[in-house]
Design brief:
Layout (H helix, E strand, L loop, with lengths): L1 H30 L4 H23 L4 H56 L9 H9 L4 H53 L2 H42 L5 H11 L6 H15 L3 H26 L3 E2 L3 H42 L4 H8 E2 L23 H9 L9
Antiparallel strand pairs: 1-2
Helix pairs in contact: 2-3, 2-5, 6-7, 6-8, 6-9, 6-10, 7-8, 8-9, 10-11
Length: about 400
């Protein structure tokens, strides 16, 4: 009975200590929240460039030189993309600005027609010309000044926030460069600070986290790029106005699960409707539905070779909580953070409670999707008939771990 009471008290005080420690960590994280934005961006840069640096190290190029080369490659890619994309974006933005008055009047006409059919009186209609006349009327000068003053204070806060974000984000590449240089040393330091009896297990869990989160981040970026290109190309083929802006928006928002093609399809439908061509808008929606299916069943399984199995409900809840707590940054990091927690907590539960081995725990949480079966032909060296084979199976066999670590 004494031993049982002692064990119960130990569990209770351990739980209380964990809650207090979590509270202190959350308070400290809120106090120094200014550093999280550059650290998150720096971490994303490291995740993207680390495979390039490792590949250069394998051919005996020093890590410092490899980091410089990786940065130069990334900068060259961004410069080339900007050279190709910025001029048409500028042109379409100018075209959009010129069509705003007409688009505004068409929107009012649409709501007037809907209100008339429903028997709803929308009152006086503020057309673009009427707004211009109201602004130019000297009798409304005082109201305009108070309105500008209210917007001015909000705009000032917005500009300060944007300037702060830009100033902080500039630090991310610098931090990422030093993180790239010190990454092997940091891994060794973590291993040295870990107790010897848990060192192998901690390294195993860290490797699983790096494989899953690194694959997720790199895969999401590549998938977003592919979705943006496909969306822009599809809208261009049907001659949709502002095709590049909508396509880029769909690609960027595809970094957030379930958002990119949905927003892109909605924008294309709205532009098609107010351009007077409902059929073109519906065709654009069909293009985005096809891109979404292609993404779910072909692109993502091919690109993301390691995924942490999370249900759609968990992903949506993580996005809601992350967005409410940290805005857009919280939305971007919510899913990777939940994946890390699932790996760590799941490993402890499966090895300590269920008695599974490290390998079994990892296989239960990290899913390696098989690439879609492709019917390809290749001739044998002896000139025999072509045969069918699955590309994904060979990649999986190469990545398979021949051994299994000992149990926890």
């Amino acid at each position: 009975m004494t031993e049982r009471l002692r064990r119960t008290a130990l569990i209770i005080w351990s739980a209380i200590g964990a809650v207090v420690l979590a509270g202190v960590f959350i308070w400290l994280a809120a106090e120094i929240r200014i550093i999280w934005l550059p650290l998150v961006f720096a971490g994303g840069i490291v995740v993207v460039l680390e495979p390039i640096v490792r590949a250069l190290e394998r051919i005996h190029i020093h890590r410092v030189i490899g980091s410089f080369v990786a940065y130069l490659l990334a900068a060259g890619f961004l410069a080339a993309a900007g050279f190709l994309v910025v001029p048409p974006i500028r042109e379409q933005a100018a075209e959009f600005g010129a069509t705003v008055p007409d688009l505004y009047d068409r929107t009012l006409e649409f709501f007037q027609e809907v209100g008339a059919r429903l028997g709803i009186d929308l009152g006086p209609v503020w057309t673009y010309e009427r707004i211009q006349a109201w602004v130019q009327d000297p009798a409304n000068r005082e109201a305009i000044q108070s309105l500008i003053g209210g917007f001015g204070s909000g705009a000032g806060r917005l500009l300060r926030g944007v300037a702060e974000v830009v100033a902080v984000t500039v630090l991310a590449p610098i931090l990422a460069f030093y993180l790239l240089l010190d990454l092997p040393r940091t891994k060794r330091m973590v291993a040295e600070l870990t107790p010897a009896r848990h060192r192998a297990e901690v390294q195993h869990v860290m490797a699983a986290v790096a494989k899953a989160v690194g694959g997720f981040v790199r895969g999401q970026l590549l998938v977003a790029f592919i979705v943006g290109v496909l969306s822009s190309a599809g809208l261009y083929l049907i001659d949709m106005p502002f095709w590049l802006i909508i396509g880029i928006a769909a690609g960027v928002l595809n970094l957030i699960p379930f958002v990119g093609p949905v927003v892109g399809g909605a924008l294309a439908l709205v532009v098609g409707v107010f351009d007077g061509n409902l059929g073109k808008g519906l065709l654009a929606v069909g293009i985005f539905v096809a891109i979404q299916q292609l993404d779910n069943h072909v692109i993502t399984p091919v690109v993301q070779r390691a995924q942490v199995h999370l249900s759609p409900l968990v992903i949506v809840l993580a996005l809601i909580v992350g967005g409410s707590e940290a805005g857009l940054l919280g939305v971007l990091v919510a899913v990777p953070l939940v994946a890390v927690l699932r790996i760590v907590v799941g490993h402890l539960w499966r090895t300590r409670v269920l008695g599974e081995s490290w390998k079994e725990a990892e296989e239960a949480m990290i899913v390696v999707p098989a690439a879609p079966e492709r019917i390809l032909t290749r001739r044998r060296r002896d000139g025999g008939q072509a045969k069918l084979f699955d590309v994904g199976s060979e990649a999986e066999d190469e990545d398979a771990d021949p051994g299994e670590p000992a149990g926890g």
